[in-house]
Amino acid sequence: MAGVAILQIRPMTVDDLPAIQDIERTSFTTPWPSHAYRQELEANRLAQYLVALLDGTTVAYGGIWLMVDEAHVTTFAVHPRYRRRRIGERLLLALLDLARDRHAREATLEVRLSNLPARRLYEKYGFRPVGIRPRYYSDNQEDALIMTTEPLELPAMADRIARLRVELDAAPAPDATPDAEDAGGKDGGG
């Protein structure tokens, strides 16, 4: 029987790294090495990472670097067994809130051209294609689509975020039961 769970989004800590590595291995063909996140958390003053926990289990994470006035989404993944529950959407909204709180003018990211579910999510939240990074992904040389938001302080962007927040707040809480099968894509969206 499926159960409704409590979703918590909070800053990532070193204690989260084993769970993050598990999500990395299940989501990406070339995961970041374990020491990379430790370095990000302990030494990179530009970096801020969040985790999403469902009833205390880490099920997603994402991070940004604030470079001058741009929030660059460096990584974003939902464990394949917990995708399609709007967890990724709630995490992306939290990252955009973090970007705005840190006075970022806009947010950018790269996504595989083939990752249509992630691209649809990013487009929903105001990211638009602005370029291509040829052969960006080392595992298969796939191109990355560069996506950027409109300025976060624009009324149209603020209205979009506010409307989507209301929709998310009205949506049912995520189900806590993990899917039996790996149903996710190769880029961690969800």
Number of domains: 1
Number of strands: 7
Which oligomeric form is depicted? single chain
Major sheet attributes = 7 strands, mixed
In short:
This protein is of the alpha+beta class and 190 residues long. The chain has a single domain (7-170), classed as 3-Layer(aba) Sandwich (Aminopeptidase). It has helices at residues 17-27, 34-43, 87-101, 116-124, 155-170; strands at residues 7-11, 47-54, 57-67, 70-78, 106-112, 127-133, 144-149.
Write the layout of secondary structure elements.
Elements: E1 7-11, H1 17-27, H2 34-43, E2 47-54, E3 57-67, E4 70-78, H3 87-101, E5 106-112, H4 116-124, E6 127-133, E7 144-149, H5 155-170
Parallel strand pairs: 4-5
Antiparallel strand pairs: 1-2, 2-3, 3-4, 5-7, 6-7
Describe the protein's architecture and organization.
The structure is a single chain. The protein has helices spanning 17-27, 34-43, 87-101, 116-124, 155-170; strands spanning 7-11, 47-54, 57-67, 70-78, 106-112, 127-133, 144-149. β4, α3 and β5 form a beta-alpha-beta unit. The protein is of the alpha+beta class and 190 residues long. It is 32% helix and 28% strand. The protein has a seven-stranded mixed β-sheet with strand order 1-2-3-4-5-7-6. It has one domain (7-170): Gcn5-related N-acetyltransferase (GNAT) (Aminopeptidase), CATH 3.40.630.30.
